[in-house]
Amino acid sequence: MVVDHQVILVTGANKGIGYKSVELLSKSHPESVILLGARDENRGNEAVSKLSANNVHFLQLDATDSKSIDAAVQTVADKYGKLNVLINNAGIGSSSGGLEEVKKTFDVNYFGAQRVIGSFLPLLKKSREAGEDARVLIVSSEVGAWSHNLQPEDLQKVLDEVDNLSVQQLNDLSQDFLTSVQTDKKSMYDWKDLFNGYGPSKTLVSVYGRVIARELKGDGIVVVLLCPGYCATDLNNNSGYRSAEQGAESINYGLKVKLAETGGFFQDGHAQSIKSEIPEAMKAAIAKHQE
Ligand SMILES: NC(=O)c1ccc[n+]([C@@H]2O[C@H](COP(=O)([O-])OP(=O)(O)OC[C@H]3O[C@@H](n4cnc5c(N)ncnc54)[C@H](OP(=O)(O)O)[C@@H]3O)[C@@H](O)[C@H]2O)c1
Description:
One of its GO terms (cellular component) is membrane. The protein is α/β, with parallel strands linked by helices. It is built from eleven helices and eight strands. The chain has one domain (7-290): 3-Layer(aba) Sandwich (Rossmann fold), CATH 3.40.50.720. The protein has an eight-stranded mixed β-sheet, with helices on both faces.
């Protein structure tokens, strides 16, 4: 069955920015089906009931589990026959360093994004083939832009030449970063870490977004990178100075971005650079965190 209205999926939406994104979308797109993705069935269903919106439905999806993603794709295919908008929002921070923790962060923020987006691409392409809108919104972070700017020149040169980069090369770079975390191993590049792997995971997911934007432009699929800004959520022990709702508004702007702007990075509707200096005000906080 293919439904007439738009089908929008937000991953990691049982709380935080993802939850607020679903709430805003349920109001701004009353005709659309909004799928609230969550890895935990109870937390997902609770979030849906809290919203009490009749166009919001729970979809079980764990970004680290291919079986869960395949089942989610099958459910969307069976129930709706297509997907118009995929908001890849699920993400985690790392409270401590160490290889295992950093690997977990990469497994959700970088490899998880790739698993989810790759698996839903056929349904997105189906929407385009039917002449409908199809887009991928990747919730990245300004922290990824700061981390990008911290990297040594030879690595930045590779990351910046998006036209020559493949997803496989980015996966190899991700592995190289993980190698750099192991003190007894020699990595190819002299990686600089920021927030225990969180920064590099967001740098790489942003570059991944730019690479697939280039690859999918011919199919008419828009890919947008977004930063919600520093919002008070569980990810940062509610230390952010913006609300999750402001973050969600910043994310949902991605629905308005045109194909000509595909691969762009936006916050609050404004185009951002893919790499930027750490603001002075953040430097002290970062130094404290790195102690
Ligand atoms: N808050 C900020 O200041 C800020 C700034 C820049 C970017 N971001 C990005 O915004 C996104 C949302 O973060 P948030 O601040 O809203 O954090 P949050 O409140 O901690 O929410 C994170 C969401 O991701 C889900 N999640 C974690 N691991 C998952 C997995 N393996 N599969 C599926 N879902 C998973 C969580 O589910 P559970 O409840 O089951 O753990 C939760 O629903 C993240 O990508 C984050 O990096 C946040």
